[in-house]
Amino acid sequence: MNDAGSGAGLGLAREKMIAAGVEPLAVEVFAHYFRLLELGETGMIPESTIDPLDMPSIDDVDVAPQDGAQALRTTAVIKLNGGLGTSMGMERAKSLLCVRRGLSFLDIIARQVLHLRQEHEAPLPLIFMNSFRTSADTLAALARYDDLAVDGLPLEFLQNKEPKLRVDDLTPVTWTKDPSLEWCPPGHGDIYTAMTATGLIDKLLAAGYTQLFISNSDNLGAVPDPKLAGWFAGSGSPFAIEAVRRTPSHRKGGHFAIRKSDGRIVLRETAQTLESDMEALGDLSRHKFMSTNNIWINLAALQEVLASRDGILGLPLIRNVKTVDPSDPSSTPVVQIESAMGAAIEIFAGAQTIEVGNERYVPVKSTNDLLVLRSDVYDIGADFVLDAPGAVPFVDLDGVYKLVGDFDKRFKSGAPSLREAESFVVDGDWTFGENVKVVGAVKVSGERGRVDSGTVLSD
Question: What is the C-alpha separation between 453 and 433, in angstroms, rounded?
């Protein structure tokens, strides 16, 4: 590394962040990670340093209904809503995507919470962590729900932003074609910095809330469930994450483990796995559980830990190498400094994990997931909770369906029925009429074509 990186890099980054009005605490957190990056820290977690983790299931836990309802009354809900869905060709909040009957992710989230408030007589504040790109659209979409905001608490707070750094010298990258691409979010681990800097933790504690339920806005399975609220409140744990069993489609994803050196639970992401350990990462019989990013936190414990660390939680570094323009592989290589919200599990003594059913993990990361959600696989009841009466089919669409605009053109008359499908693979450019039904394991292949309305595709 040249002198520009070690001497000027951090100084230039600080100046850029201050000039952009970034919160002072966020600047200090960035500086903490920058110094680790300079020292060669990669955030890697070698297989030799961890053991597999097993855990109890929520199905084996008894929580009295009145205890669950009481716990819900002191719970606040935060949804991570900073994502634009750029990998799906979107330029607005992914949560604005239509899911069913004209309802977006935001509509369903709001209605889930409003129903729970009524059913359990709980204030259950709903707060969104937005980015500067998603704030305006999100608030506009939620304006129809007059009673959603809780007095004295905000409906949103903003995540921070940080400069992308050149790989060659760790100075802030310049990109005159689109200066907004010079910035990136610091990963969802930034939630702790953003909550501290905005005073949200203090406000919630002062209003009598004792615990948080945090989840991603693109996961409609992440409902603030009273049984889980009651389990967490009664556990005495400061921090807990819901986990699901990994499947073959999750082989390359992160997982939980036990750190040998101190017995703490850790969350190892793919970006923290050595190339030589990739086989172990993919061993589903060894590392059985992955994070849903549905997290429960005791607010007093969080406040205490943050105060003891001067507001810098010190989550493990994730060094993410990309190009400054994600759509242009020939653009300047950059490092994005990130951290994961769930990695805080290793910070809290007595933190726990709990196995939940797959119905609590329904993320939409691609148009494959979106097709399943828009189909009849899931029922959406009066409580707006997703329910899959049968198994969820495997869906794999051709690359021509990757972007939402292209996807919508090919399913103009709606998603096919997938309730009786085992798998649905589309190879080639096909358009689909209305009331198409898929039964069993189906593959549609050919350079291009059309599946007419009313067609039943089987095996």
Answer: 4
CATH number of 311's domain: 3.90.550.10
- DSSP per position, 337-373: EE--GGGGGGTSTT-EEEE--GGG--B--SHHHHHHH
Q: What integer pLDDT is reported at residue 304 of this predicted model?
A: 97
Find out whether 20 and 255 touch, Cβ atoms under 8 Å: no
Q: List beta partners, residue 353.
A: 241
The residue among 342, 360, 378 that closes a domain is 360
Res 454: pLDDT: 97
Residues 163 and 307 in one domain: yes
Task: Report the C-alpha gap between 438 and 424 in whole angstroms.
Answer: 7
* Entry field: residues in the chain: 459
Give me the amino acid identity at 202.
D
pLDDT of 250: 74
Q: Answer whether 0.85 is exceeded by the pTM.
A: yes
Q: Are 229 and 178 in contact (CB under 8 A)?
A: no
287 and 245 in one domain? yes
Q: What mean pLDDT is predicted for residues 71-98?
A: 90
User: What pLDDT is recorded for position 91?
Assistant: 80
Of 313, 333, 360, at which residue does a domain stop? Answer: 360
Q: Give the model's pLDDT for residue 271.
A: 82
Domain boundaries, position 17? 3-360
My answer on whether 277 and 382 are in the same domain is no
> How many domains, the chain?
2
